[in-house]
Design goal:
alpha/beta; TIM Barrel; 8-stranded parallel barrel; 3-stranded mixed β-sheet; binds 6-O-phosphono-beta-D-glucopyranose; Glycoside hydrolase family 1 protein
Length: about 450
């Protein structure tokens, strides 16, 4: 075997509650911002497919967990939906939700699949958004109560907890770039949302450590290595600034307990620092994570700013650098994302050298493809060779990082079965398992799923 992986390596996949469960308003669940946004603007979702039309994991989890076994999983990440567990955001816990999540966790464990549980995957309950969402301190308190309820209810069995998935995404998509509800474009408000999310995270970590729950707690960050166009000083400075805004803004506080000073200075100079309350920095500093999840899809390429923005233009991070399209870059045309496998190795070495060699795992990496039905073979399953190649090429670099001492504990592909991808709905398919929307959401293991089983069984390839 050319690429053997360490013993007990986690092989599995990642998914999320809002993207798989369905049963959107069933058994006491109430709206999240996604259900609400879909109710007012269904046309914003690819082919008008909304969050109630996901893969129905809510009813099919037992069969799905058997398919996880068939595809080699020894671990699986999903998220609890706050809007299902505590439908009013605070107060009463929904017993039907407790029963559902208990059953999922127990079924995973009974099948020797370690549950990795995330508490928040872009899914603010609508009633909490009405109170100001992450701009409101009250929502931080409510989130911490929700986190405590999860630790109390499920902490006797779940050993790996995550406070947030990609917390920078709601900051960018909902408060800067007009992509997700509530469609605000305002850097100052985005900075408040980011800071409050980090405080909420740190307070949840603190609550976890004070509880009797088993195991470890961390966060899942999407890291996008930031590469300069050239080795020129100006290009390198631009890449460094992009790195501060898009990676270190979250990575530093959750691992080192403090914001990068250079970023604080930039924001202070522009009078864009959020209000920081007395014990915010203390709680951040006292609660570093045990374990990091790294979602890696693509790098960011940057060059020095060519034309400065007018002084009165409302601030955006892109006022400090330009993006750069590298000649000859390879992209996944369906998603438009660059494919650059070696960047995953750069992340690993950075964590080894600058982040106390923190234990981490690749918590998402995957390839979304449109129109996969055309690759169906005579036996009726999709031959997604491109996905196998994509994973292999990334794993080669993960392997090299491990050989060189990075503390990587596993690899989770995004995702287990084709799922609902927010506003992209079912446009791009990512699964090891196909979900046939035309035929009762039937599941069929793809070639990548069969290969993934061998990969896990052999612990390498
Ligand atoms: C990650 C998210 O950013 O990428 C997932 O954690 C998401 O929720 C995945 O589905 C793939 O991105 P997209 O936008 O193609 O669905």
């Amino acid at each position: 075997m050319d690429y053997p992986f360490p013993e007990k390596f986690w092989w599995g996949s990642a998914a999320s509650g809002p993207q798989t469960e369905g049963a959107a308003l069933m058994d006491g669940r109430k709206q999240s911002i996604w259900d609400y946004w879909y109710s007012i603007e269904p046309e914003s979702f690819h082919n008008g497919v909304g969050p109630e039309q996901t893969s129905d994991f809510y009813h099919r989890f037992k069969d799905d967990i058997q398919l996880m076994k068939e595809t080699g999983h020894n671990s699986f990440r999903t998220s609890i939906q706050w809007s299902r567990l505590i439908p009013d955001g605070t107060g009463q816990v929904n017993e039907k939700a407790v029963d559902f999540y208990n059953q999922v966790i127990d079924e995973l464990l009974a099948n020797d699949i370690e549950p990795f549980i995330n508490l928040y995957h872009f899914d603010m309950p609508m009633c909490m958004q009405e109170k100001g969402g992450w701009e409101s301190r009250e929502v931080i308190d409510a989130y911490v109560q929700y986190a405590k309820a999860c630790f109390r209810l499920f902490g006797d069995r779940v050993k790996y907890w995550f406070t947030f998935n990609e917390p920078i995404v709601p900051v960018e998509a909902s408060y800067l770039y007009n992509l997700h509800y509530p469609h605000i474009v305002d850097f100052k408000r985005a900075a408040v949302v980011a800071h409050h999310t980090i405080v909420a995270h740190a307070r949840a970590v603190e609550a976890f450590k004070e509880s009797n729950a088993l195991g470890q707690i961390g966060i899942i960050l999407n890291l996008t290595p930031s590469y300069p166009r050239s080795e020129d000083k100006e290009d390198r400075a631009a890449a460094h600034i992009a790195d501060l805004f898009f990676n270190r803004s979250f990575l530093d506080p959750v691992t080192k307990g403090e914001y990068p000073l250079e970023l604080v200075d930039i924001l202070a100079e522009k009078e864009l620092l959020p209000i920081v309350e007395a014990d915010d920095l203390e709680v951040i500093s006292n609660n570093p994570i045990d374990l990091l999840g790294v979602n890696y899809y693509q790098p960011r390429r940057v060059k020095a700013k060519e034309n400065p923005e007018p002084d009165n233009a409302p601030f955006m991070p892109e006022h400090l650098f330009d993006s750069y399209i590298m000649p000859g870059r390879r992209i996944n045309p369906h998603r438009g994302w660059e494919i650059a496998e070696e960047a995953v190795y750069d992340i690993m070495i950075d964590l080894r050298d600058h982040y106390r060699n923190i234990p981490f795992f690749i918590s998402e990496n995957g390839m979304g493809v449109e129109g996969e039905e055309k690759f169906r073979n005579e036996e009726g399953y999709i031959e997604d060779e491109y996905r196998i190649e994509f994973v292999k090429e990334h794993l080669k670099w993960v392997h090299k990082g491990i050989q060189e001492g990075a503390n990587c504990l596993g690899y989770h592909i995004w995702t287990f079965m084709d799922n609902w991808s927010w506003a992209n709905a079912y446009k791009n398919r990512y699964g090891l398992v196909e979900v046939d929307l035309k035929n009762g959401r039937n599941r069929t293991v793809k070639k990548s799923g069969k290969w993934y089983k061998l990969l896990a069984e052999n612990n390498g390839f």
